[in-house]
Amino acid sequence: MNIGTLARKFFEKNGVGMALFMMFGVSFWILFLIVLPQLTMVDFSFRFKLPPDAIGGPQDVYTTTNYEYFVNGNPGNIDGWNRVDVTVFWRTLIAALFVTIFNFVVCYPIAYYMAKVATGSWARLLALSLVVPYWINEILRAFAFRIIFGDAGLINTVLKTIGVIDSSIDFIRADVALYAGLGYAYILLMIFPLYSAIESLDKNQIEAARDMGSPWWRIHWRIVMPFAKAGITSGCTMVFMLSAGALAAPQILGGPSSLWFTQIIYQGFFEYFNWNRGAAYAIILLVSCMIIVLSIMKLFRVKMGEIGR
Amino acid sequence: MKPSLLARGLTGLYLLAFFGFLFGPLFIMVVTALNSSSFPRVSPWDCLTFEWFAKLAADERLQTGLLTSLGIGLAVVVVSVSLGLAGALFLTQIRPSARASYYTLITAPILIPGVVLGISTLIFWDRTAQMLGFGTDSFFYNGIFLTVLGQSSFISSYCMLVIISRLQRFDNGQIEAALDLGATNTQAFRRIMLPFLKPAIISAGIIAFLASFENYNTTVFTISSLHTFTTIISQKVRLGIDPSISAVAFIIILLTLIGALFYEGAHKRAELKKARQVAGDDMRGLFRRNPAMIMGVMVIVATMGGIWLAMNHSATQCKADLLEQKLERQRILEEQYRQSQPATGAEEPGGAPASQGLGAGAFGNVFDPKNLEGQAGVGEEGEEAGPPEGEPQEGDQQ
């Protein structure tokens, strides 16, 4: 069957109006909002930063300068390589990984409880109270953690009143506030995939294992977790990608001496006005996150299509 | 098998800790919005005040930003729900073998970091404008246009997921029956498919609006010289925090809470209605056996009470007292310092007033009857009367 007959059948089946709506909508979305912008960004990242009138001129050729800069930094710098950017890059990825693990550990019991223990209106109430904090602005959530962990913040005040410490602990500089804020921000995105995966597990399987004398931890390790594998991967993927790509929380909660990789991208755009390098860095972030996520999916044998359901 | 008491206790503790973690920050923001201290804090508590809301209401920049955000939000709802609907319907039309890759492509924007989406949108339309020969004053560089497109790229995916989950339960026989009876395709869609999808379309719209309103990562790149509510708040937080941001949070939390309670109440009501129909009972009370609805109304009543209180409450007196206390404490410290110096200490007649005064400061003059008058809002004349500083009078109950 060729394209022409396919299109004709498509129009016949849906009517002209509906067929046009679908075709126009889907192609606009895929082309102008997803594929072309990403491709343009890739193209852009391989070009020099030029003034507008030189674009398309003889100087406008492909180059890998922007990527080399990520590795080497300015020519003739002391370290011989771009110490700041590369360090921040690794620290961001590792910190995002830890935030993900922390979130999983915190959320798994709640998701299991909601899916298998809680019932009726109590379960609905729990679900509702999970959603409410999520709709509070990301900035405001970060702001709350600033109040809590700040120099004159709640925790320091309480600790000083009790007499545990004499002078304030700098939680902001130690990045405690940042990790707590990031973990907090994406709780819901971890719980819901876990919940919907665990919910579909037949309770009899758990009962059977228990009757056979299996301790609770082995029930989770051998039955619930393998069953909910897709949900676990899905939740972890989302939390990892979002915390690695977070910008608001690091800007507000990050210590003065530590940066998040997105902040470097932001600086490239708005402080150095080097869009080309900013685009290259954005691609470095995107590609490395995707590599990490895909290899974890490979490791746990989960397919892409199972994500996000 | 019933779980043991210990296990249940531990579960309860864990739930408590988890929801404490979840709601603690929100609670703290709400409390700090009402404290007169210029640094948002819970303790020490200064005075109950509503001045931060007034400060907010006077902030014109924030209001302009709010309008921009609302406009962008509405545009995003229109674009994303249409695209999401088209995407969801299209998914049912294509071959199963192509479905997986189509699905991956169209849900990918959810996983792409918002920063990347913002940058790619900005660059793409910049290049397009240059290629077509438009200047920087054309709409291709308009912050609202770019932001709507940038946000829609991933919000459409959310909408599509919501619509798909309902579409999966659709019985295609209905459409076929309508077509057999002579309906046109458009009629069948409008009369059968759309009404069926209506709840999903409404929730997709709400989700789209909220996601657009709170978006920061994409917006900050695409908004160019304009500002949205979120970018302004972010600037404020980074420049220096003050409780008017807590006041913003207060209002948003309240609105979210009311929305959530009424949503739950409406759900419960529909459920109860269904149950009654089955039982053949036609009693219909809005609040009967519907705690969420009752709580929602209670929150609204409490809000109105709070607004009334805010209209009639003045923290001036309390703040004046507080200032007096602080000055007094400073005076006492100076006094003590002077006394600790033997040469100057001899000049002062005695140490007793100072130590008693310290007591008054520590207790915050709570025993001072004039202070109570001030709290009740009797009048401003308390200011000149003031608490008796450092003098051995009433109020020193050591």
Structural commentary:
- The complex is a heterodimer of chains A (309) and B (398).
- Chain A has helices at 3-45, 65-72, 83-117, 120-134, 138-149, 154-162, 176-185, 187-199, 203-211, 216-227, 229-244, 248-253, 261-270, 275-299.
- By secondary structure, chain A is mainly alpha-helical.
- In chain A, helix 1 crosses helix 14 (275-299) and helix 9 packs antiparallel against helix 10.
- With 398 residues, chain B is mostly helical.
- Chain B folds into three domains: 41-241, MetI-like fold, CATH 1.10.3720; 243-313; 317-385.
- Helix content of chain B is 73%, strand content 0%.
- Chain B contains 17 helices and no strands.
- In chain B, helix 3 packs across helix 6 (143-167) and helix 5 (114-132) packs across helix 6 (143-167).
- The two termini of chain B are 60 Å apart.
- Total number of strands of chain A: 0
Uncertain runs of chain A: none
CATH superfamily of the largest domain in chain B: MetI-like
Rounded to an integer in angstroms, the radius of gyration calculated over CA atoms of chain A is: 25 Å
* CATH architectural type of the largest domain in chain B: Orthogonal Bundle
Describe the global form of chain A.
globular
Distance between the termini of chain B: 60 Å
What structural category characterises the helix and strand content of chain A?
mainly alpha
Supply the number of structural domains of chain B: 3
For this entry, give a set of tags.
A: mainly alpha; MetI-like fold; B: 398 residues; globular
